Amino acid sequence: MIEVTDTTFEEVVLRAEKPIVVDFWAPWCGPCRAVAPIFEQLAAEQDRVLFASLDIDQNIATASRYGVLSIPTAILFESGQPQVTVVGARPRSYYERAWARWLAP
């Protein structure tokens, strides 16, 4: 998992050569801690999509820019544009279906 900030978001996410999922989270959020291992597993098992995390408490500007009102929120970006947003803690299979177009071999 790549950690991104308001400062690095444009370079790391918006200019990424591959699709990238950004996990918008906060340290105090229990559901965020529950889904983090799912994203880590997906990141380790495939190389078509990058995975990053952004602490919304420390990076308010980026969270606001993308309308993140509930966490966890995971947004898949491709070519600098948000493509699919998943709000809330979901099982791994839900994320795999939501991002199937990008994760599929």
Give the arrangement of secondary structure elements.
Layout: E1 2-3, H1 9-14, E2 20-25, H2 30-45, E3 50-55, H3 60-65, E4 73-78, E5 81-87, H4 92-98, H5 100-103
Parallel strand pairs: 1-3, 2-3
Antiparallel strand pairs: 2-4, 4-5
The strand order across the widest sheet is 1-3-2-4-5
Helix content: 25-40%
* Distance linking N and C termini: 20 Å
Order of helix and strand elements from N to C terminus:
EHEHEHEEHH
Query: What integer is the average pLDDT?
Result: 96
Global outline = globular
| Unreliable residue stretches | none
Radius of gyration: 12 Å
Structural class: alpha/beta
The fraction of residues in strands falls at 25-35%
- Strand segment tally: 5
- What profile does the largest beta sheet have? 5 strands, mixed
**For this entry, what is the oligomeric state of its chains?**
single chain
Number of helices: 5
Question: How would you concisely characterize the structure shown here?
Answer:
By secondary structure, this protein is α/β, with parallel strands linked by helices. Helix content is 37%, strand content 26%. It has a five-stranded mixed beta sheet with strand order 1-3-2-4-5, with helices on one face.
Describe the structure.
- The structure is a single chain.
- The protein is built from five helices and five strands, in the order βαβαβαββαα.
- With 105 residues, it is α/β, with parallel strands linked by helices.
- It has a five-stranded mixed β-sheet with strand order 1-3-2-4-5, covered by helices on one side.
- A hairpin with a 2-residue loop joins β4 (73-78) and β5.
- It starts with a strand and ends with a helix.
